[in-house]
Amino acid sequence: MSVRSAVERAHRISWVVLLALVTAEFLTDPPGPGWTTTLLPAAVVSVLLLTTLALQTRAAAPRGEPRDPVAVDPPVAGRWAALNSPADKAPSHGTHVYGQTYAIDILADPEPTDGEVPARPPFRMLWPVFRRNRDFPAFGAPLLAVADATVVAASDGQRDHLSRNSLPGLVYLMLVEAAVRSVLGVHRVFGNHVILDLGDGTYAAYAHAQRGSLTVKAGDTVRAGQRIGRCGNSGNTTEPHLHFQLMDGPDLDTARGVPFSWRGVGVPAGGETFTAGEQVAPARPGDVGGAG
């Protein structure tokens, strides 16, 4: 086992132990003073949790001189808006872990057309707490291969959960779901995903795809612009969107991020809208997948 794998395992075990201690405190009455049975062990585990997280982040940070951005085609078509972009900061998601240094999140933001394409629901403080996935224009939008490539991983068996784009939903995501998914591993964080081998030591990862929507499997070859799946809301997400990144390896636990540039678009900054290719209609309810 490599040092990075050992640190990753220690981090997950720390989460499990901490959650067990918190659960025991609420559901049982351990013998002896509380500071010896719960508080002290929880403090020790918390320190271990933070330490392993810091080691993970340091190990995943890019080494040496930054690589030049790799030019690839956009992974979507139509009008979209960027969020958590490496054009604003790196690491774009606040961590180098899972090869996310130069990752970007994008949300479908189509021009209104006589009500045929639904507008993206805004964030709400209290109500509605959750929304259906089909209320978001990104849900079901085609995901496209950014280059001629070979599929090295493809998984789409996880459910698409309801949105978390309200304050109570966001709190629930951050305090409950995110912790559980961190324990279960990166595949639960990324949800349904595809990883493409672009050649020259570069890999593209698409996260949060719609359940049952992937049209490729490991070992397949794809052409640039080919549809490989649809945008969904699986994994650690607040609403349907695409999380895209380039990496230097196919293993999300050990890969380091690689900068990218989309041909004809560049790297859109957070809040910036961009248009790629032609507008493609998302899948309608009943096409594939479903919300949970």
Automatic annotation (TrEMBL):
<dbReference type="Pfam" id="PF01551">
    <property type="entry name" value="Peptidase_M23"/>
</dbReference>
<keyword id="KW-1133">Transmembrane helix</keyword>
<keyword id="KW-0378">Hydrolase</keyword>
<feature type="transmembrane region" description="Helical">
    <location>
        <begin position="34"/>
        <end position="55"/>
    </location>
</feature>
<dbReference type="GO" id="GO:0016787">
    <property type="term" value="F:hydrolase activity"/>
</dbReference>
<dbReference type="InterPro" id="IPR050570">
    <property type="entry name" value="Cell_wall_metabolism_enzyme"/>
</dbReference>
<keyword id="KW-0812">Transmembrane</keyword>
<protein>
    <submittedName>
        <fullName>M23 family metallopeptidase</fullName>
        <ecNumber>3.4.-.-</ecNumber>
    </submittedName>
</protein>
<feature type="transmembrane region" description="Helical">
    <location>
        <begin position="12"/>
        <end position="28"/>
    </location>
</feature>
<feature type="domain" description="M23ase beta-sheet core">
    <location>
        <begin position="187"/>
        <end position="247"/>
    </location>
</feature>
<dbReference type="InterPro" id="IPR011055">
    <property type="entry name" value="Dup_hybrid_motif"/>
</dbReference>
<dbReference type="InterPro" id="IPR016047">
    <property type="entry name" value="M23ase_b-sheet_dom"/>
</dbReference>
<keyword id="KW-0472">Membrane</keyword>
